[in-house]
TrEMBL record:
Annotated keywords: Kinase, Transferase
Presence of the UniProt keyword Kinase in the record: yes
Residues in Carbohydrate kinase PfkB domain copies: 180-269
Record-given protein name: Fructosamine kinase FrlD
Organism expressing this protein natively: Hypericibacter adhaerens
Coiled-coil regions, chain positions: none
PROSITE patterns the UniProt entry points to: PFKB_KINASES_2
Amino acid sequence: MRVTAIGDCGIDRYVDLRADRPGGISLNFAANAKRWFDKADSIAVLTALGEDREAGIVEATIAGLGIGAFIAKRPGITPVQYIDRDARGERIFVRYEAGALAAHRLGGPEREVLRHSDVMIATVFTQILDFFETVAEAPSGGLRALDYCNLGTADEPLRYVQRYATRFDLGFFGLSPAQAPLIDALETIARERNRLFIVTLGPEGSLALGGRERIRAPAVAVPKVVDTTGAGDSFAAGFLSLYARSRDVAASLARGAEAAARTIGEVGAFPAPLVPWPADAPAEWAALKRS
């Protein structure tokens, strides 16, 4: 089985630790897919990186994980997500710089990669929307999944869901139980479009929308939450590793919960070294701290 994660591979810049580590939604997924999919399966990322120090960190990590890579190198910076954490280990997104990824567009060879993928997962958010449009329109022969980091715009809160639901077989959403009206709205869309939507709810578990009844699964308890960064990406990898073969939603939710639990007990979505900031790091990096 050929599995391709398309989109954000970059740097998670922890302002509380004054250190960087490789991350990004697509790399987080791929690293965990390597753990949860069968050993014989081929896992790859398709992304764009800049020509900077950060690109070297990401490329070395991808090679070390044994993940396939289709990387476009472009002028500019490698994507960077600035992250802080609160006392409970909850991730606080401070700022995102899409850099080279925002300027990239899929070309013919990259479209061929997707066309031959048995499983593909992409992510949509406002900063890379033009790039994502080229992903959404690219054909692929297998299971198509989409992580909705943004559901829409301020004027149209469900714009992206409405626009892209028919182009992907299933969608992932990270929400909270307090967003019950939004979950109801997603369920309506899933049923109307005959799609499967998976909603993760942090410690409240997860649920699947689109069938006659909702399917629920509890979260897996962990002794200590260290960092929730990438928990949703890990969940998606665990879920798809089973669902892609079995279409068993309940069992796949349970595996996704197990994968997420393994992630939140460590810094980042997968084991990787922290790289201390260089001595000449801009003062504004540390000034972004929000906890």
